[in-house]
UniProtKB/TrEMBL annotation:
Keywords: Monooxygenase, Oxidoreductase. InterPro entries: FAD-bd, FAD/NAD-bd_sf, MOase. It comes from Stephania cephalantha. Pfam families: FAD_binding_3. One of its GO terms (molecular function) is FAD binding. This is FAD-binding domain-containing protein. Residues 144-186 form the FAD-binding domain. It comes from the Eukaryota. Belongs to the 3-hydroxybenzoate 6-hydroxylase family. SUPFAM superfamilies: FAD/NAD(P)-binding domain.
């Protein structure tokens, strides 16, 4: 550990986030910047926001903003915007350490031309809930061609498959990892009545192979959905295709497909 403590274990599952030390040990390369960054906050309107349990997304000139109600008074909101490199977004990196009120002023300038509903939610946001982060993802071919487990060591969650948020599946996919891990390790334990490192190494390989293609497909779909909504040339053509085809047919069908994924059944003790 960082304080030089040594912990001996029969299984090591790295759930240590986007900048995972365990993933680096496995040989996975660092996640890359997607070209998009995000502000997030929590708006609180005591008189009620009037969203009626409906989420809203607005697209405009390289910005994608959205709101999702948590209850009658509170709503989560986000702003995703294009920035070609992290170096160009260095101002926000520096602002992480600045007063949250300064961050709020920047956000209010960004949303000045968006619908009044969104502007009001931002204005009613506690600056302490405001966050900024670059949107990172792991290159799909890195997952395809590198070991996701070595011996008794593997990774799960963002340590395995950081992705952009367009499909809203980052946390959901981490829960899938937990179920698949529980299924494989639990079955192994019930069979041998003990944690045997050699047997665990085999089932971690099964887990890694099972999760590999699922993670790759979600990373690719999330990134491409974000690109289609925000990036690229021929903006007028993209806008037409997005509004007449993408949201009506592709987006909803993809969401339905990814959310109906079956993780299998946990072993019965």
């Amino acid at each position: 550990m960082e304080d030089k403590t040594i912990i001996k274990t029969k299984v090591l599952i790295g759930c240590d986030g986007v900048h995972s030390v365990v993933a680096s040990w496995l040989g996975l390369r660092k996640p890359v910047y997607s070209g998009r960054s995000a502000f997030r906050g929590l708006g609180v309107m005591p008189q009620g926001h009037g969203l009626n349990n409906e989420s809203h997304i607005f697209l405009q000139d390289g910005y994608r903003v959205g709101v999702g109600p948590l209850n009658d008074q509170q709503a989560h909101w986000f702003i995703i915007y294009n920035c070609s490199s992290l170096e160009e977004d260095e101002e926000n990196n520096m602002m992480r350490a600045m007063d949250s009120k300064i961050l709020m002023k920047k956000v209010l300038r960004m949303v000045a031309n968006f619908p009044p509903l969104f502007l009001q939610l931002v204005q009613h946001t506690d600056p302490a809930t405001l966050t900024w982060a670059p949107l990172m993802f792991r290159l799909p071919w890195d997952l395809m061609f590198r070991d996701l487990s070595i011996g008794i060591v593997t990774v799960a969650g963002d340590a395995l498959h950081p992705m952009t948020p367009e499909l809203g599946q980052g946390g959901c996919t981490a829960l899938e990892d937990a179920i698949v891990l529980g299924r494989h390790i639990g079955t192994c334990f019930l069979k041998h009545k003990i944690i045997q490192p050699l047997e665990v190494a085999k089932v971690l390989k099964l887990y890694a192979n099972e999760r590999r293609f699922r993670a790759v497909s979600l990373i690719l779909a999330s990134y491409l959905f974000g690109w289609f909504q925000l990036d690229g040339s021929f903006q007028w053509l993209k806008s037409y295709a997005r509004d007449t085809i993408f949201f009506k047919y592709v987006y909803l069908r993809t969401i339905a497909h990814v959310t109906k994924y079956d993780c299998g059944k946990l072993p019965i003790v």
